[in-house]
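Reminder: ligand-aware prediction takes two inputs, not one.
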Amino acid sequence: MAGERIRAVVTDPGGDGLRLADVALRAPATNEALVRVAAFSLNRGEVKRAMNATEAGNTIGWDIAGTVAAPAADGRGPAAGTRVVGFCRGMDGWAEQVRVPTPDLAPLPDAVSFEQAATLPVAGLTALHCIDMARALLGRKALITGASGGVGMFAIQLARHAGARVTAQVRSAEKAVFARALGADEVLVTDDGGGFAGNGPFRFAMDAIGGPLLANAVKALDKDGVCVSYGVSGSPEVTLPVADLFLHGRAALRGMHLYATSEIEPPSAAFPRLLGLLEAGRLDCRIDRVTDWSEIAGQARDLMDRTFDGKAVLTVSGA
Ligand SMILES: NC(=O)c1ccc[n+]([C@@H]2O[C@H](COP(=O)([O-])OP(=O)(O)OC[C@H]3O[C@@H](n4cnc5c(N)ncnc54)[C@H](OP(=O)(O)O)[C@@H]3O)[C@@H](O)[C@H]2O)c1
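Here is what comes back for the chain with NAP:
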């Protein structure tokens, strides 16, 4: 209800970075369902932004799973009582309740838990949309950089499902074990991608690191290969001789942003593709830990310090 106060995670620059506080539940738009949040997962992009925030009291949170408390007024989308997963583009999902446009929600199969579903929105959808930009992967080689990350771990598995032979890039031997366990056929331990050419040519590459890794991924494409850039965790500056693209034939470098792509294929259409794999036991969410949301500050710090692999899921007590 409008005017209602709810508990939510908010930015806390003077304190622990993030904390629980009372905030106003905003008034609904006609296409928004009200979701009672049961679990959420953390992504590096949003946590980094929140931990560096200078303003206190801002909400946060993309990835949620929970139960519809009130359906959208326009009559579309899931009914009250439906278990759902949601991508909260308003960055306000880490709360007891959140209003979500129904195109950003999908119903959960009975076999999928809230905790599993909460890992999917940003990491799973980003991996899915990047893999969708590959053509004819069956029996071909794919390169996944940043393979130890949230997106990377889903990308390894989805590229395998698309029929690719997967090479994963990580930056330590310890992370190589993680990438192999997720199904990578080859794992390269490298900071700059110097070994990519010797393992290619790749029909497809996806990169969130930038810098020399991205340049070397492009160099290692085959003559009809596509490299998708979706982040710059390492460096936004890349020296890329453009001849590396056309000398391979008609290789391409493309970008992917989840918000923009969600306008083309809404999460309500994309989620079921991942949920079907989860339901069939063919997608590993790699949940490293499930804790109560009162521990948000410590979990956010652990994520930023990269003290664990896989996803951290927080449950919303009282939901
Ligand atoms: N375009 C979009 O719509 C979109 C969507 C989601 C995410 N992103 C971006 O994609 C990136 C990955 O997201 P995520 O959630 O998967 O993050 P994550 O879980 O933190 O994973 C980051 C990955 O990048 C590696 N890495 C980080 N800094 C590095 C550096 N300086 N040099 C080499 N490797 C580095 C990490 O390796 P270690 O494990 O060794 O630390 C890890 O494999 C982020 O930049 C994020 O902002 C973009």
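The CA atoms of residues 137 and 164 lie 5 Å apart. The chain has two domains: 5-122+285-315, 134-255. We will return to this case in the review session.
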